[in-house]
Specification:
mainly alpha, Rna Polymerase Sigma Factor, Chain: A, about 190 residues, about 0% strand, 8 helices
Length: about 190
């Protein structure tokens, strides 16, 4: 009787890939492709580059699946591989500044065109300020605020103590607030 892989847990699916048939890997890719792509896109801001990097990440995951330890969530493990791969890629490219994301907006019928424009400009300005942060601050704050990961998950991904993760997110917020005030973007927030 064929297995309905959509109902199999990540851990069991990984075991099936390792022990039986790597064809089950396509289900793992289906489950995590959006997360991987989203993290990469926020770090490189180029859809084609993000697609290429996502494929490279899944090749790494495929080759290293036997190294996965079940005491960690699979999503944490795959995000760690993703962020490390992008950091290595950026180092090789020696990029100085990387946009966090292309913001797509849903038009609200309650918001005037002027309010929509101001919001878009404010968000673009904040994303530009976020881009300027060093990676040691940018990565944790993006994973926390944009990807919704917990402090512990971020700690597992970047392999830093929980206290350091909390400190870096705190400092990143403080640096962003100072930049917002210094650049005049703060007037949008009444700062």
């Amino acid at each position: 009787m064929p297995v309905d892989v959509s109902k199999v847990s990540d851990f069991d699916l990984i075991q099936m890939c390792i022990n039986e048939d790597m064809n089950y890997f396509s289900e793992l890719m289906r489950r995590y492709k959006n997360l991987v792509f989203s993290v990469i896109l926020r770090m490189v801001n180029d859809k084609e580059e993000a697609n290429d990097l996502a494929q490279e990440v899944f090749i790494k995951v495929y080759k290293n699946l036997h190294k996965y330890y079940p005491e960690f969530k699979f999503s944490t493990w795959i995000i760690r591989i993703t962020t490390n791969h992008v950091i290595d890629f950026r180092r090789k490219k020696k990029q100085e500044s990387v946009p966090i994301e292309d913001v797509e907006y849903e038009l609200s019928s309650e918001e005037s065109p002027e309010a929509q424009y101001i919001r878009k400009e404010r968000d673009h300005s904040i994303n530009s300020l976020l881009e300027a942060l060093p990676d040691m601050y940018k990565i944790p704050i993006v994973l926390y605020h944009k990807e919704g990961l917990s402090y512990q998950e971020i700690s597992d991904i970047i392999k830093e103590p929980l206290s350091k993760v909390k400190n870096r997110i705190f400092r990143a917020r403080k640096m962003l607030k100072e930049s917002i005030i210094n650049t005049g973007v703060g007037e949008y927030y009444g700062v």
